[in-house]
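Morning run. Coffee first, then this:
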Amino acid sequence: METLNQSPQNESHDRVTGCVHVVDDEASVRESVRLLAASLDLPCVVYKSAEEFAASFRPDGPGCLVVDLFLTGRNGFSLLREFSDPQFLIPAIAISGNADAKLALRAIQEGAVTFLSKDCEKQELGQAILMCLRLANEATSVVDRQRPLNDGLEQLSDSEKVVLDHLIQGTPNRVIASTLGVSERTLERRRASLLGKLNARSAAEAAHMVGLYQRDEVLRPRWPVPAELLAGVLSEGVEPPRSR
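And here it is:
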């Protein structure tokens, strides 16, 4: 088998965008994955430790995380737990020098999309990277849709949030004003302010926007796991991962 430190050949693939983030305490592994990313015309950033990655990573676009599970210091499992949410746009490939079904299962349970041995063929890792980047590119649309509303919600004052809760429930203005102990004019000012921050033209539109946002939050899936990986885990008699 070809190991990761062998120079890969350029292969055609669907155009995907994103950065490959490599976290490994072995310099040879970091360099081999960097060369593989370069062969795929992808930018790559390498990190010597989980601590270095956690301190410097910013979720500003789609990417892929290649992380060694058994790092010196903070291990790769903790990174998977922290950054596996699709909002970070970096589906992860867990790698290790020791490969077995139980280890693969644990990596999946912690949030990895797939698991590979460090002595895997370069083509296998390249395909896994491209798969992760396609997932990240697809997830970008959901995050982009949520971001403006999320920014608006963060700008609301506490009193405006209370008014918004009442508007979502369809409570009439007069009842809201009475409940909050303010004049209807004061309520109208708060209502106009929160609608402006949410870029909504009416209370009904604001309620609809927030409803979609909450639905996306509830229904946001974890990254899908390749069927062949699950099949391999199951063939070893290991229980499959449960949905979060």
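The longest helix spans residues 122-155. Good start to the day.
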